[in-house]
Design a protein that fits this description.
The radius of gyration is 19 Å and the shape is globular. The protein is built from 13 helices and eleven strands. It has a domain of about 100 residues: 2-Layer Sandwich (Enolase-like, domain 1), CATH 3.30.390.50. The N and C termini lie far apart (about 55 Å). α5 packs antiparallel against α9. Helix content is about 30%, strand content about 20%. β6 and β7 form a beta hairpin. The strands form three sheets. A five-stranded antiparallel β-sheet has the order 4-5-8-6-7. A three-stranded parallel β-sheet has the order 1-3-2, with no helix packed on it. The chain has about 325 residues and is of the alpha+beta class. Keywords: FAD, Flavoprotein. InterPro entries: CO_DH_flav_C, CO_DH_flav_C_dom_sf, Diverse_Substr_Oxidored, FAD-bd_PCMH, FAD-bd_PCMH-like_sf, FAD-bd_PCMH_sub1, FAD-bd_PCMH_sub2, Mopterin_DH_FAD-bd. Pfam families: CO_deh_flav_C, FAD_binding_5.
Length: about 325
């Protein structure tokens, strides 16, 4: 591991002024540092900041501190009762030990699990811009089929952010100088394009302080994760769904997908196809067609296209029963 400076922040203002990489649970960053995929000159420890509370909002939603551990968030009675999709997504991720350390803010910033990103001898535009993407034409079984570019086909590995995308979460940040932002999660992540190393809209030194969930949505909620083994594996395809029924028809739908793209994926066209329709194989097939209209496999991940269709259909049948 490359040597680095260490500082402990006593306040949010101190943290954003310190100049360095933020660390709390460290469940992803420390692994990357050991492999020298990440080589920060300075770590700023924010683990002792007062950002570990879950508070109710006036609109019935929740404000979640960036340092709330994944295990605490998943087990919170308010989350279980009102945001079941989020609790289920959190419990589908990692192991109990890691969930005890991993934080809400850190979970949003997970780096990809692309094999070539982790291998410093391989070409990876995300890790070393301009070095190429060996996943294209290589072993790409876990890689993206939506929103890719000729520079990168990596996937976002998270579960929690997929559920938060379906719930229209808002990410609250503070930058050096005290400026604060509220960023809709749909605007937070970036597709690879020509700059796959730029994964989100955070500016240097900008710290995630909270996540806001709006009032609980109406309808049935579901999170389904298809993976190679029953635990401690990343999604090949995951679906976070919230569907409300009225008079036998779909009144509203929010559907987000993991394992398919560089970010938690949500396409309004998929939901638009469903709203106003009675549940049927034809309606579900049309939604899958909308989801996969631009899908592209790269060889060993071609199977994700029919798999995504089957998983979406199964989820919609459960959400509308």
């Amino acid at each position: 591991m490359k040597t680095f400076d260490y500082a402990r922040a006593d306040s949010i203002a101190d943290a954003v002024a310190a100049g360095g990489r933020f660390i709390a649970g460290g469940t992803n960053l420390l692994d990357l540092m050991k492999l020298q995929v990440e080589t920060p000159d300075k770590l700023v420890d924010i683990s002792r900041l007062d950002l570990n509370r879950i508070e109710e909002r006036a609109d019935g939603g929740l404000t979640i501190g960036a340092l709330v551990p994944n295990s605490d968030l998943a087990a919170d009675p308010r989350v279980i009762a009102k945001y079941e999709v989020l609790s289920r997504a959190l419990l589908a991720g990692a192991s109990g030990q890691l969930r005890n350390k991993a934080t809400t803010g850190g979970n949003l910033l997970q780096r990809t699990r692309c094999y070539y990103f982790y291998d410093t001898a391989a070409g990876c535009n995300k890790r070393a811009p301009g070095s190429g993407c060996e996943a294209i034409g290589g072993f790409n079984r876990i890689h993206a089929i939506l929103g890719t570019s000729d520079q990168c086909i990596a996937t976002h590995p998270g579960d929690m952010p997929v559920a938060m995308r379906a719930l229209d979460a808002v990410i609250v940040t503070q930058a050096p100088g005290g400026d604060k932002r509220r960023i809709a999660i749909g605007d937070f992540y970036r597709l690879p394009g020509d700059t796959p190393e730029v994964e989100n809209v955070l500016q240097p030194g900008e710290l995630i302080t909270h996540v806001e969930l709006p009032a609980p949505p109406a309808g049935r909620q579901l999170y389904r994760k298809v993976r190679d083994r029953a635990s401690y594996a990343f999604a090949l395809v995951s679906v976070a769904g919230v569907v409300a029924m009225e008079d036998g028809k779909i009144a509203s739908a929010a559907l987000a997908f993991g394992g398919l793209a560089h970010m938690p994926w949500r396409d309004p066209a998929v939901e638009a196809v469903l709203v106003g329709q009675a549940p049927s194989d034809a309606a579900f097939a049309a939604a899958a067609d909308a989801l996969l209209a631009g899908a592209k496999g790269f060889g060993t991940n071609d199977f994700k296209i029919p798999l995504a269709r089957r998983v979406l259909t199964a989820c919609l049948k459960e959400l509308t029963r």
